[in-house]
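Entry type: protein chain
Record version: 2
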Amino acid sequence: MKYRLDHPELSLRKTADNLRISESALKNWMKAAKDHEGSVPTRGSGNYASDEAKEIARLQRELRDTKDALEVLKKAIGILGN
């Protein structure tokens, strides 16, 4: 949260963009820091509850990316087919 404190002129949205996180994640971290006297409690790398949760998140990202690629291909086929 030091970045947020060091750059009070930035909006929450711009701060989140600069940190490459969602605005809601930033808000959650700010609330956690406030609730825990300035520190943000974490559960380790990636802040996942377990290795299984981390793998599920990875697979969900992979599935989302695959679905996005499939949509692009469908649109390309539609354009080429006309």
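Comment: The CA atoms of residues 55 and 61 lie 10 Å apart.
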